[in-house]
What we know:
By secondary structure, the protein is an all-alpha fold. It has helices spanning 3-26, 30-46, 58-71, 76-88, 92-105, 107-122, 125-139, 149-159, 163-181, 186-198, 202-215, 220-232, 237-252, and strands at 143-144, 147-148. The longest helix is centred in the N-terminal third of the chain and has 24 residues, at 3-26.
Amino acid sequence: MNVKSIIFKVVIMLFCTHCMAQEITNNETAEEKKARQDRIIQEHVYDCADKINYNFWMKQYQDCLDAGLKKDSTIAYLWQQKAMPYYKIRKYSVGKEYLDKAVFYNEKRWLSYRGFMKCIFAKDYKGAIEDMELYIKKYGNHYEMDHTCAFYIGLSYLQLNEFSKAEKTFENDIKDQVKQKKEAHFLDWFYHGISLLEQQKFERAIASFDEALTVYPNFSEAQYYKSIAKAALGHSEDEIQFLYSEAIENRKKGYTITEDNAVYEIYPYQLRK
Length: 273
């Protein structure tokens, strides 16, 4: 048997094996597919990757997930889990490649998450707006990491110095939240206040900071930027100094932006210790 014949037989065998595997996958019911993928996630995420500290053993952590992806490369959650630690150690370009895969395989679940990661971690504000606007258009203005898609759009506009757009976005988001939940998140009020402060609409900015402080009374950032607005309006030096000092003291006590991911990234306009 010559070399060409051997190669041809090997190719045919591999092709047939692929066809059989594809046929098995195609013949699965939705319930069977979910059960199979859940088993892979259990084995390679919860029983493997989650038991490894990726800060010290990134290769071993990634090996767990890669072994799962060899069994089924269409499981979006495995791709997201590969991406997540790279964002947390500020290797955004590496993480993006994997997160894009997660969105490809499950857009509805991971598109808004990618928008969040672009906004808070990678500082890709135009990209964040694109992702969040697309998500809202296709699936609605849902919550990602405790905030609406619109919140991240407003925050991105704020960071792009498009203050009027940020103001309008936060204003509409606050109205929607009040309508649905009777109360808006204090960060919506805070960043709405910042958008007004940047436009020198000082009295309205103070009103928004007060709304944030109604929900979170010791919120140091709201107190700090409120003191700036009061100074711009010519309030008494004693009043301004008292508010400023209270803000600094509350920041030292940890009364700051309370987002879980604030341990990895400084949020826009967040005071440093």
